[in-house]
Amino acid sequence: MKALILRDLRLAIRAGGGFGLGLAFFLIVIVLVPFGVGPEAAVLRRIAPGILWVAALLAALLSLDRIFALDHEDGSLPLLATAPLPLESVALAKAIAHWITTGLPLTLAAPGLGFLLNLSPAAYPWLFGGLALGTPALSLIGTFGAALTVGLRRGGLLLSLLVLPLYVPILIFGAEAARRGGDGLEATVPLVFLGGIALGTLALMPFAAALVLRINLR
Amino acid sequence: MMPDLGPYAGPVIWAYVASIGLILVLVLASWRRAVRIRRALQQAEGQNRG
Amino acid sequence: MSIWEYANPKKFVETTTPLLPWTFGLAGLCLVGGLIWGFFFTPDDYRQGATVKIIYLHVPSALMAINAWLMMLVASLIWLVRRHHVSALAARAAAPVGVTMTLVALVTGAIWGQPMWGTWWAWDPRLTSFLILFLFYLGYMALWEAIADPDTAADLTSVLCIVGSVFALLSRYAVNFWNQGLHQGASLSLDAEKNVADIFYYPLLACIAGFVLLFLALVLLRTRTEIRVRRIRALELRARRAEART
Questions:
Q1: A84: alpha, beta or left, given left = phi > 0 and alpha = psi -120 to 50?
Q2: Chains C and B are touching, with contact defined as 3 or more CB–CB pairs separated by less than 8 Å
């Protein structure tokens, strides 16, 4: 399993833009928002947590279809399915690799980009904590979505239609935690919910993804 | 015959028109597809036997 | 005799052929009767005025929007466990009906909200959950359309339906947390104290019966269509194989 994660990471780095592309997309979305809503600091401060979360969501979505597509094209997916490693572990490994290449850099970069949107100082720890808990769940759900659409030629668009509604609870709790933190309120409750969702997806999504992969490889 | 709907006549009538319209579209679409497919199946089975 | 006998497509078509006109007829009767009763022969509410008449469309369609998803969930589970094709096809047939019901509920709600709340749309928990439900329906239908092989499509959409149900429920409670609502509480419950007044209640029941029957009739009709589509496909395949052999 470790070998699989390392292999995916190496592929992502060699292909170029594995780490960089999602992060650059995140930066561009953040930069575009002030052009859209105007440069007023008070307005930006109000919407900053939501914008950061939505941008993180879209950046994570961007690289989802590559989770299984490359392996499907070069035929290594059936090999993985017949390997001694259970398919559930393969799905989990893929999700972890996706998280390391997109979720982790996003989490680390978000506080830095918060300055651009004039995020209130009290919100930083909550934003960071929320993203740290939420992005693994995004990767896990995304792996399920990618497994659903693996054999389809135009899977990318369909993938976003399928996966984005599943992201709604994470977005709500994550942005709510950062917003409450920024207003100086108690924000542990949404964070605890977010942690619950993350653990739930960790427990269930690899199984759902493996089930769907088996159907697709039949 | 028409009941007095007061100031809300517009919204009430629009709600009825819109909903009944949507439901009618669904029913007609389902019906037409059912008829078309039934004909196609009859044709296909006829060819098979002939 | 077991209920699973109706899982045989041929048996299903044969049994439902005589039932279909009756369900459509009864649905039409209940709907037309209930709506005319509600529209012409009920008084205005003392607070909401004539807009109370929208309830006869709004409540039944909202009810059916959720029940259609539940029916799809049950049908998906039956397909995954017992592999009856009719079950998978019924789930597929129910989705467009469910999406229309969701749309009717959203549209009537918006038209009612405009004079009452002063806005077409508010990001209220109930409204938002319905919008999310609408998106789930769209994704489900899109996945059915996208996959060519019927059995793979049935399997994948079933799994999606189950996972989607979990997340739809999660979203339902998440949006409660996110925003306090304008929407009133349940207008129907078994606890009679909280119910709407009797004079609105009976025509409402007639409309609900009408919507349930209409849903049933449409799902039967559409399932029969799907069964025939499947049969045409099988015949075409057989013909092509016969050609290849000669």
A1: alpha
A2: yes
